[in-house]
């Protein structure tokens, strides 16, 4: 409970990566008057499907709800493969999972949601599945944006987040906070992302590091050399140079990939002239624990970067095709985004429509990333 109180009462200041936090000392405010009598609300459901990054970027919304409704039961609905990101999180009382492909399981889930009798449901996703599950709850207050395809299935339809905030360029976190704040919840401090480290995951990581002959006192540089799309993945050779650079600065490079990405890890090790520890079998709670243990994170724009930022670890994130304004890690901690600006950025990212290879990410020079590393290490008083 003390950990929960610390998270709820924390008020992060503006950082380099994101704009988490406000600069004045006023108490956070809602973005509109209350839409209903909040004193009657006992159960709240937040629906946020899709990826690791999407889940991490939903934590500021969960935090604002938790501190506003400390006695309410707050649940979140996530896809089953990403649900462990919020394992043992003090921000929610329950994590509900939905399988990727199973109509029978989804029908069963819809019935369960209806039986639970939620008072308020926020649809932070807007896709067809999320919207129909929102409707299936039968909750008295079902909230979604007016631009959703089936917006009529909500009985509280919000205007665009840009209209709510009175600004055009918004981060994903701000878009989600807009929906919460529009219903009368104080959100104007725009808190940073928050992830808790579970004790079992911390013990497991300590054991795995020890098995790799990494001592407890060693400062780690966590490297994530992969990404979901080619337009977001910096070259393995470049990451090898970064591994050498952090080793020269007294940090132990540790790279992580998924089981299907082992060839990238092996290539990184072969191309670096310094020893690189590596893991390809970590659970998401273990990734969170390792990120929290690290002194520095360097990686592509990915869900793992958002995990690292949410643990407060200083970050250097290399961007390619993505919209930096919308997708940069949202943190009050030290960090930098490194990118090579091209006229075609940002784009959808599924493939490069301008070049044979995605130059937006491949042209980012190692020297600029290393310079960012040096600035972050200095700013966090490492030297």
Describe the structure.
- The chain is of the alpha/beta class and 383 residues long.
- The protein has two domains: 2-181, Rossmann fold (3-Layer(aba) Sandwich), CATH 3.40.50; 199-379, Glycogen Phosphorylase B (Rossmann fold, 3-Layer(aba) Sandwich).
- The chain has 15 helices and twelve strands.
- The protein has helices spanning 2-9, 52-56, 59-68, 103-116, 128-136, 161-165, 172-181, 199-211, 236-248, 262-271, 284-293, 303-310, 324-327, 359-362, 366-379; strands at 43-47, 73-79, 94-98, 120-123, 141-145, 156-158, 220-224, 252-256, 277-279, 296-300, 315-318, 335-338.
- The strands form two sheets. A six-stranded parallel beta sheet has the order 3-2-1-4-5-6, sandwiched between helices. A six-stranded parallel beta sheet has the order 9-8-7-10-11-12, with helices on both faces.
- β11, α13 (324-327) and β12 form a beta-alpha-beta unit.
- The longest helix has 14 residues, at 103-116.
- It is globular.
- Residues 1-15 have low confidence and may be disordered.
In short:
The protein is of the alpha/beta class. The chain is built from 15 helices and 12 strands.
Defining key terms:
383 residues, Rossmann fold, 2 domains, six-stranded parallel β-sheet, 15 helices, 36% helix, disordered N terminus
């Amino acid at each position: 409970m003390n950990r929960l109180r610390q998270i709820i009462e924390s008020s992060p200041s503006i950082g380099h990566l994101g704009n988490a936090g406000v600069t004045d000392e006023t108490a956070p405010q809602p973005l509109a008057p209350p839409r209903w009598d909040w004193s009657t609300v006992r159960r709240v459901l937040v629906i946020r499907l899709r990826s690791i990054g999407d889940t991490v970027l939903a934590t500021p919304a969960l935090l604002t709800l938790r501190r506003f409704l400390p006695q309410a039961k707050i649940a979140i609905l996530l896809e089953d493969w990403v649900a462990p990101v919020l394992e043992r999180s003090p921000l929610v009382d329950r994590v509900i999972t939905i399988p990727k492909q199973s109509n029978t399981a989804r029908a069963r889930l819809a019935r369960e949601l209806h039986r639970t009798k939620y008072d308020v449901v926020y649809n932070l996703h807007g896709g067809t599945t999320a919207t129909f599950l929102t409707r299936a709850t039968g909750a008295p207050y079902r909230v979604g944006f007016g631009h959703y395809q089936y917006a009529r299935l909500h009985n509280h339809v919000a205007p665009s987040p840009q209209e709510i905030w009175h600004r055009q360029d918004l981060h994903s976190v701000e878009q989600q906070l807009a929906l919460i704040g529009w219903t009368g919840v104080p959100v104007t401090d725009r808190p940073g992302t928050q992830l808790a480290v579970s004790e079992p995951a911390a013990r497991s990581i300590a054991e795995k590091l020890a098995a790799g002959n990494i001592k407890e006192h060693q400062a780690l540089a966590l490297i994530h050399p992969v990404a979901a799309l080619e337009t977001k993945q910096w070259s393995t050779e470049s990451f090898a140079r970064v591994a050498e650079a952090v080793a020269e600065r007294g940090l132990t490079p540790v790279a992580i990939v998924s089981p299907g990405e082992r060839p990238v890890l092996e290539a990184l090790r072969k191309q670096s002239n310094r020893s690189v520890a590596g893991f390809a079998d970590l659970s998401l709670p273990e990734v969170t624990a390792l990120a929290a243990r690290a002194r520095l994170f360097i990686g592509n724009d990915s869900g793992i970067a958002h995990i690292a930022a949410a643990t407060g670890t200083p970050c250097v994130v290399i961007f390619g095709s993505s919209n930096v304004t919308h997708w940069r890690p949202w943190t009050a901690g030290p960090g930098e985004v490194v990118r090579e600006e091209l006229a075609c950025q940002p784009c959808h990212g599924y493939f490069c429509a301008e070049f044979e290879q995605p130059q937006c990410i491949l042209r980012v020079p190692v020297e600029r990333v290393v310079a960012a590393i040096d600035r972050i290490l200095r700013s966090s008083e490492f030297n």
